[in-house]
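Duplicate of #3305? Posting structure anyway:
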C-alpha cells in the first residue's frame, strides 16, 4: 500500500466512530419526544454505544493479532452495516439501544485495526505523526457530521442518520476490500487463548502492568471522557436550555469541534519540536484551562451559547493534541501485541466515556452547572495524571 492509501484508510476507519456519535446528536432531544423518554434514557443510545465499543475492543484487538488486520476489519464493517439498518428500523427505544450496542461492536474493529496497523508499519515517533495527519482528516467527520445531522433531522427525522451510517460504512468496506493489504507480519496463533504464559489474559496483565502504557493511556482516556461530556450533554444544553435551533446546533457543535482540527495540526508541530512526552503535558494543561474556564463562566452567571461552544473548542483542541500522542505512546512498547495494546487503550477510553455520559445524563437539571462542573473535574484529573506519570512517558522513544 502507498503511504497515501494507508493514510486515507486509517482516517476512514477512525472517522466511523465520531460519525456514529456526532451525526445524530441534534436528534437526541427529538428522540426523547418520539419515544416519550427522559434525557437520561435517550442518552443510553450513546452510553451503550461506547460500552459496546469498549468491550468489543478487548476481543477484536487480539483477533487481529491472531488472524490479521484485514479479515477482522472486513467482518466488523459488515456487522456495522447490518446494525445501522437495524437502528434505522427500530420501533422502540430499547431496540434502538440494543442495535446501537451491536453497531459499536462492528465500529470498534475499524478503530482497533487502524491503530494496530500504524504500529505494524511505523516507529512510535512516525506513528504519532501518522495519527496526527489522519486525525486532521478525521476532524472532517465531527465538523460536517453535526451540521449534516441537523438537516437530516429537520428534513427526514432521526432515522435518516442511521441510513447515512450504513451508506458510509458500505463505501468504507468496499475501499478496504479493494486496497487494504495485510500488515500483521507476526500473527500470534495463541493471541485469543485465555490461559498460558502467552495467552490473552497474560498479555493483558503484562500490558496493564506497564507504567509506560498507563503514562499515555490514562491521560488519553480522560481526554476522551472530557470531550464525551460535551458530546452527550451539548445538544440538551444548547437546544433545550439555551434555545438554539436544531439546524444551528450543528453549526455550533461543528465550530467547537474545529478546535480538534487545530489541535491535531498543533500536535504535529509540537511532536517535531518537543517530542511525544512533552506534547502530552501541553495538551493536559490546555484541557485543565478549558474545564476551569467553563466552570468559572457558569459560576459567574454566564448563560450564552458562546460560552459552551468556546469551551468545547478548547477541550477539543486539547484532545487533538492528547489522543494522537496517547494512541502512539501506549501501543509503542508492544510491537508484537499492538492489537491487544490498542484494544486496552480503547477499552479504557470507552469506560471513561461510559461513566461520563451516564453521569451527564443523570445530572442534567435544566442548567449549565452539571456539565460545567463535570468538565472542570475531568480537566483536573487529566492534568494531574499527566503530571504524576511524566517520568514514565520519557521511557517511550
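Output from current build:
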Amino acid at each position: 500500500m502507498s503511504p497515501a492509501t494507508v493514510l486515507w484508510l486509517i482516517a476512514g476507519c477512525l472517522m466511523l466512530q465520531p460519525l456514529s456519535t456526532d451525526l445524530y446528536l441534534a436528534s437526541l432531544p427529538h428522540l426523547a419526544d418520539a419515544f416519550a423518554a427522559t434525557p437520561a434514557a435517550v442518552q443510553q443510545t450513546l452510553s451503550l454505544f461506547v460500552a459496546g465499543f469498549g468491550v468489543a475492543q478487548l476481543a477484536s484487538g487480539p483477533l487481529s493479532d491472531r488472524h490479521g488486520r484485514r479479515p477482522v476489519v472486513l467482518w466488523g464493517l459488515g456487522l456495522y452495516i447490518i446494525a445501522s439498518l437495524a437502528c434505522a428500523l427500530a420501533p422502540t427505544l430499547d431496540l434502538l439501544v440494543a442495535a446501537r450496542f451491536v453497531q459499536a461492536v462492528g465500529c470498534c474493529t475499524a478503530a482497533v485495526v487502524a491503530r494496530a496497523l500504524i504500529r505494524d508499519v511505523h516507529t512510535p515517533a512516525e506513528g504519532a505523526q501518522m495519527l496526527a495527519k489522519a486525525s486532521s482528516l478525521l476532524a472532517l467527520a465531527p465538523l460536517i457530521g453535526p451540521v449534516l445531522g441537523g438537516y437530516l433531522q429537520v428534513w427526514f427525522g432521526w432515522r435518516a442518520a442511521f441510513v447515512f451510517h450504513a451508506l458510509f460504512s458500505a463505501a468504507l468496506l468496499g475501499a478496504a476490500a479493494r486496497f487494504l493489504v495485510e500488515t500483521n507480519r507476526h500473527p500470534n496463533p495463541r493471541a485469543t487463548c485465555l490461559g498460558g504464559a502467552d495467552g490473552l489474559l497474560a498479555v493483558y496483565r503484562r500490558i496493564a502492568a506497564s507504567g509506560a502504557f498507563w503514562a499515555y493511556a490514562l491521560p488519553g482516556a480522560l481526554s476522551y471522557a472530557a470531550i464525551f461530556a460535551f458530546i452527550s450533554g451539548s445538544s440538551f444544553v444548547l437546544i433545550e436550555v439555551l434555545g438554539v435551533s436544531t439546524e444551528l446546533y450543528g453549526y455550533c457543535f461543528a465550530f467547537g469541534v474545529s478546535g480538534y482540527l487545530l489541535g491535531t495540526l498543533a500536535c504535529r508541530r509540537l511532536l517535531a519540536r518537543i517530542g511525544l512526552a512533552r506534547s502530552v503535558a501541553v495538551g493536559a494543561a490546555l484541557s485543565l484551562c478549558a474545564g476551569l474556564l467553563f466552570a468559572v463562566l457558569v459560576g459567574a452567571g454566564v448563560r450564552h451559547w458562546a460560552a459552551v461552544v468556546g469551551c468545547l473548542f478548547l477541550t477539543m483542541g486539547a484532545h487533538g493534541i492528547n489522543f494522537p500522542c496517547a494512541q502512539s505512546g501506549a501501543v509503542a512498547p508492544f510491537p508484537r501485541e499492538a492489537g491487544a495494546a490498542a484494544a486496552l487503550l480503547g477499552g479504557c477510553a470507552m469506560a471513561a466515556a461510559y461513566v461520563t455520559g451516564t453521569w451527564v445524563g443523570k445530572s442534567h437539571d435544566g442548567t449549565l452547572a452539571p456539565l460545567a462542573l463535570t468538565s472542570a473535574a475531568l480537566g483536573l484529573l487529566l492534568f494531574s495524571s499527566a503530571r504524576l506519570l511524566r517520568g514514565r512517558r520519557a521511557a517511550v522513544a
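Confirmed duplicate; merging threads. The mean pLDDT is 82. The first helix runs from residue 3 to 22.
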